[in-house]
Amino acid sequence: MAGSSYQYDKSTPFFSTTDDDDAAFLRSGRRAYESSTIEDRHQQLLEERRKIEERTIQSSFRSIGLLHESEAVGAATAEELDRQREQLKNTESKLDEINTTLRVSQRHIQGIKSVFGSLKNYFSGSKNDAAKMSTSVSGGDLNKEVDNVPDTKTRLAQVLEKTEVDAKSSVHPVERFRSDEPMRSQDVDSILDKNLEDIGLSISRLKNLGLDLNKEIEDQNVLLGRITNKTEDVDFKVQSQTKDMNRILKK
């Protein structure tokens, strides 16, 4: 062909040197495509890593939030148990006073039994007083004292105060995470380390609070047992003394 620049390689008569240039061009394009594919894959992996890190951080914040809620519930329970313990102690104290009064009353009744019938009229006038005494022993004074409970510092209350102070001094986890800036790998590691530390501290506080709550419940069960026994003793004495007074007065 006239004016053609197509050149033949004498050593390979079937192909021209132009064919070699075309092959080199094709290889170059393939390398560029492979390089682009590797870069895209690298970016894809980085994006997947970023999403995993974000999900992990969000999960750690949710865990911290749930632990804080559990601490709040535990603190409220501790407060209620502390108030209940004071009420029970006050109730037991009043029962002790009532038992003392009843023992004195019993001695008086025994003295009354030894008096001759000529004193019957005298004791008849005391009938209403004896009935009122029995009523007051089992009645409203005890309930009134239970409602008026003094504030007393206990080990459980001290643990509760420490829990509340720790909770107030810590920043809410969601607030620490709010940021429009992209996070670097070292930022992610730092956040996760801090969150794991907070989780560990919160679990430790919950464990100690749980142990104290368990101890408090056990102590109150013992206290309830004593109160039950003393209440039954008071009830028996009141009924017995009422019967004695009725016999003396021949009702």
TrEMBL record:
Q: What biological process terms from GO does the record include? A: protein transport; synaptic vesicle fusion to presynaptic active zone membrane; synaptic vesicle priming
Coiled-coil annotated residue ranges, if any: 35-101
Q: Which InterPro entries match?
A: T_SNARE_dom (IPR000727)
Could you name the Gene Ontology cellular component terms for this entry? plasma membrane; presynapse; SNARE complex
UniProt xrefs under CDD domains: SNARE_SNAP29C (cd15856), SNARE_SNAP29N (cd15887)
Q: Where is this region: Disordered?
A: 1-20
One of the entry's Gene Ontology molecular-function terms is: syntaxin binding
| Bias-annotated ranges (Polar residues) | 1-16
- Top-level taxon of the source organism: Eukaryota
Could you tell me which residue ranges the T-SNARE coiled-coil homology domain spans? 193-248
Family note: Belongs to the SNAP-25 family.
Q: What is this protein called?
A: Synaptosomal-associated protein 29
Q: Which organism is it from?
A: Folsomia candida (Springtail)
